[in-house]
Amino acid sequence: MTRPADRHRRTLKAAAASVAALLALGACSSSGDDASAGSGGSASPNVSGTVTVFAAASLKESFTKLGAAFEKAHPGTEVSFNFGGSDTLAAGITGGAPADVFAAASARTMKTVTDQGEAAGTPVVFTRNRLEIATLPGNPEKIASLKDLTRSGLKVVLCDKTVPCGAAAGKALDAGGVKLTPVSYEEDVKGALNKVVLKEADAAVVYRTDVRAAGDKVEGVDFPEAAEAVNDYPIALLKNARNATAAKAFIDLVRSAEGRKVLTEAGFLTP
Amino acid sequence: MTSLDKTGAADTLAGRPRRARARAGVPLPLLLPALLGLAFLVLPLVALLIRAPWRSLPEQLTSTEVWQALQLSLVCATSATALSLVVGVPLAWLLARADFPGRGLVRALVTLPLVLPPVVGGVALLLALGRNGVVGRWLDSWFGITLPFTTAGVILAETFVAMPFLVISVEGTLRAADRRYEEAAQTLGASRFTAFRRVTLPLIAPGIAAGAVLAWARALGEFGATITFAGNFPGRTQTMPLAVYLALQNDPAAAIALSLVLLAVSVAVLAGLRDRWVTAS
I need a surface site. Which of A88, B136, B162, B192 has the fewest CB within 10 A? Predict the structure, then answer.
């Protein structure tokens, strides 16, 4: 889906804000080539070359930051990302796309990869994402709960049940015993969010990280039923990884304290 | 006009033996790329047929959602074509026949939706006709009309994307058509509009039909502008391409089955029309 340009700008700004942290990171690892225990956790000495990471679209902001940190910490490496819907990425991997690491937005999509024997080892859950209601800025409709979304005259969009955010929203609605008829089932989470950003819909059920990324264009409302539908994000080294050493180092960085910090800043929950 | 066409057809018939002789000598530098091009277009469709889940097909096709989506697709594509005809043919006439400054610019503007990614077209429609849009806010506050998330929204999105095909096609036919027929009608006392209605329109009918078929086909497959502007709700705005895309997310076999339905229906319609109109052009 389309992403407003200003979201991009905000991402850049956020990236700039974290430059200080990254610089510190880079400095500490480049000072000692071998003993770069600094950021990457258990970074091994001969990490080099390109790491190809297939990651869920919701990880774009955080992983781009972590990729830059990784390249700083290991001079001569390059992290190449392919962000997209987890299902599409999983289909690509099982279809033979050259990837070293797969980070999925749901256990189900990771399972399609492990079922085909494409993962090396067991995937690890490295972060989690929780749903939130995105409302117009200032919440003019005074939406405070899932139940409020069923008010007549309110235009609510959900993700389609075939995509992870829609499946999660369905679970949360079931948990709350709320029967909701939206005006649209969007094809992905950004599509749902954008309908609120463009003020065409009054509310959407999206991820916390999307609300965070949209800045002041939307306002997030937490709801208790979201706890019933938290999405696990597993990450795995792939069997056909061409650069397993660097791939492992990248996974270590994602799971390190530094990685957790970047993910938390983006609105993700600790696993 | 029909008599003219018939003479044309007779000429072709009479000329057939000579043409057949010419065909035997198709130059290799033309034949090879032509066959390659044909294979490139047909191969993906063949692959779709080979990999189609034939066994589960009956089950897929009996779901009400499929029929709902198919029906909505046909209704919306046909309405979008009708809308394109109503405003597109006069627009094409304006571009081909009227002299006004900035005509080149107008033509460029008309063709813009052809190059615009449809998703961007959908966002542009939202900014113009959405609840908070430049024009849409007045539609909402004066008439209580909101277009996003409605079937009317689907038709508008499809028209936006499909109409340029019709305009370009009709304009081309108008330019190729002999102006002297219109001039003769006018010297015999017909007004310019009567000449258009009674002389020009029948003259360019095959071109209009070809343009309408193009526009219809484009509208039928429309995805990006539709899902962006009108959203996705079964029975109201979920057309076949949307249903196919969403099925693709977790059930590729179902997506292939749906695509086959769409393909079969469009081939049937286009083949039916071809005999009637399209070959005439």
Answer: B192
Band of the pLDDT at B93, cuts 50, 70, 90?
very high
> Least CB-CB distance to A87: which of B131, B148, B250?
B250
Confidence of residue B277 (pLDDT cuts 50, 70, 90): low
Query: The domain A10-23+48-129+231-265 is classified under which CATH number: 3.40.190.10, 2.170.150.40, 2.60.40.10, 3.30.70.80?
Result: 3.40.190.10
Specify the range with the lowest mean pLDDT, choosing from A48-57, A258-267, B2-11: B2-11
Residue from B232, B238, B245, B256 to probe the interface with A (highest A Cβ count within 10 Å): B232
Chain B nearest C-alpha distance from A87 (Å):
6
- For the domain made up of A131-229, the CATH class stated in words is alpha beta
User: What angle do helix axes B28-51 and B252-276 make, rounded to 10 degrees?
Assistant: 130
Average pLDDT value for chain A: 84
Provide the edge-to-edge strand list for the sheet that holds A77-84.
Answer: A77-84, A49-56, A101-103, A231-238, A119-129
CB-CB neighbors (< 8 A) of B247 in chain A: 162
Which residue spans of chain A are classified as CATH 3.40.190.10?
10-23+48-129+231-265, 131-229
Q: Quick check: A198 and B242 CB within 8 A?
A: no
Contact indicator for B68, B234 with CB cutoff of 8 Å: yes
Q: How far apart are CA B46 and CA B62, in angstroms?
A: 24
pTM over 0.80: no
pLDDT band at B278 (very low <50, low <70, confident <90, very high): low
H helix count then E strand count, chain B = 16, 0
Tally C-beta pairs within 8 A across A and B. Answer: 66
Residue A160 clears pLDDT 80, i.e. is over it: yes
Q: Residue A206 forms beta bridges with which residues?
A: A132
What is the structure's pLDDT at B24? Answer: 66
Is the Cβ–Cβ distance between A221 and A133 less than 8 Å?
A: yes
Q: Which residues contact B106 (CB under 8 A, 6 or more apart)?
A: B94, B95
**pLDDT score for A33:** 37
Pick the residue with more confidence: B206 or B6? B206
List, in order of start, the domains of chain B with CATH numbers: 59-280 (1.10.3720.10)
A119-129/A101-103 β-pairing = unpaired
